Amino acid sequence: MGDLNSASTDANISYSENQDRKLRKALSTWDLLMLSVGGIIGSGWLFAAYAASVLSGPASILAWVLGGIIVIFIALVYAELGAMIPRSGAIVRYGHLSHGSFAGFLFGWAYFLSAVSVPAIEAEAVVTYAASYVTKPALIANGIMTVFGTLIAMLLMIAFFFLNYAGIHLMGKTNQGITWIKVIIPVITVIVLIAVHFNPSEIVPPNGFLPYGWAPVFAAISSTGIVFSYFGFRQAIDYGGEAKNPQRSIPIATIGSVLIGILLYSLLQVVFVGGIDWSKMGLEPGQWTLLNAYATAAHASTEHPLAYQLMNAPFATIALSAGLVWLTYTLYASAYIAPSGTLNVYLGTSTRTLYGMAVNGHLPKIFAKVADRNKIPVIPLITTLLVGFLFFLPFPSWYKMVGFISGATVFTYIVGGAALMNLRKQAPELKRPFKLWSANVLAPIAFILASEAVYWTGWPTTLYLAIAIFLGLVLYGALVGLHKIEQTFDKKNVKAGLWVPVFIVILTILSYLGEYGGINVLHFPLDLIVVAIASAIIYVWAIKSGIKTEEIAAMIANEDQYV
Predict the structure, then answer these.
(1) Which ranges in 242-324 belong to alpha helices (H)?
(2) Of 91, 174, 207, 393, which has fewest CB within 10 angstroms of its CB?
């Protein structure tokens, strides 16, 4: 039986390597950087400033800075992994390569849930902005997409499906043009609003810079679209198997994109906080909670119409209230371009995620088949489109979906620090074009910070996330039972990956006990300390349970680290 399993694994490795080689190596360093920047600057810049502000007030500026620092730690870890083993759909592979099939599946499934839902949320962003001036037929009703609005969002996803289908070269070059527009318009917005319509006193209003304390600042990082935006850096890693020189390009694109994102988003938050004309809102300066309470359709025709408009089109509403009509129209145009560009990128990311899961043996081999004509995995692309449609049902608005996506995304990055250290121990002979300095310090910090970010998404989002991840095991069992895939969960890799489901349960329980939507038994900052201690213990367990997987052994033996 052991020989049969070994033979099956060897055949799967050989098939995967052949498919990896068929991918077109067409992306330059600049292409990868623009893919990552394009992933970062999407609907987040249109809506996250409002969501973060109403939760934490002017301290939302600090939330963007702290969120960026957290993501930098995580990005540094993945810069080494991405340059060391560049593969398309790479992020779902690292947990598999370092801890075996069981852990690899759980992280891969969570990553797929996060990636496949992004095209849907970006399409929702376009529809939400359009609803500000398209009223018949209505696109949005009471903050929720109508049937007509959902149809428009689906048609937008279909259009970018065909662009991805055309192949990576056309998609990459198209993305460059879109990304330039996505960068230029926010920069113009920052410059114009600071010069024409900026009140520095709003940064520290009468009720203070931290009107609601520190806890909402951390909640804003995970639940309002901040980490959701920053994690666009992953594009350079997920498209790494299609890069001309991944060893050089991936670290530059990964770290460079996050630094660009931190600078731009922090400045955007500053001009948003300082650009609101509270008198026109019918409120006193700093009444953020009340502003959010008035941002409903019921108040749209009362004494607070701008509050509702501000929620649906934050920067455009500020520009209009300042009399900057040309900027208002520019921002409405950007509301089509920025989310659409990110939708385009993430359709490809989700496609490569399914491809990576199939390479790991967690999905049927047809998902790992690269088409000869356009050199992309077509079946995963079609599946991504169809599954993406389903996310409109439970999450029919941008603000409802962003918390779930953030939680699912940040959970998948927990494995990075443990994978890096285990691969250094198990495969020291692999080349490391970018070797993270002080990794024994930075890797556990990245692990702990990612865990904290999952906790900050709050209850019951963590519960929904845990259920969604464990439902993936049901899918895996069904595929095995139907003989669509081989059973790859053996005693060795289940033992190596057991820390993953245990940690999911622990984080869910801590979320229930905490003050981020839970029963508030664990108060701030004690809750953060408890999460950090639990994360450190799990990190040690993850390091000790790492194994030298057959895939890594074959990579070393065959000298095919770079395919």
Answers:
(1) 246-273, 278-281, 288-294, 305-312, 314-321
(2) 393
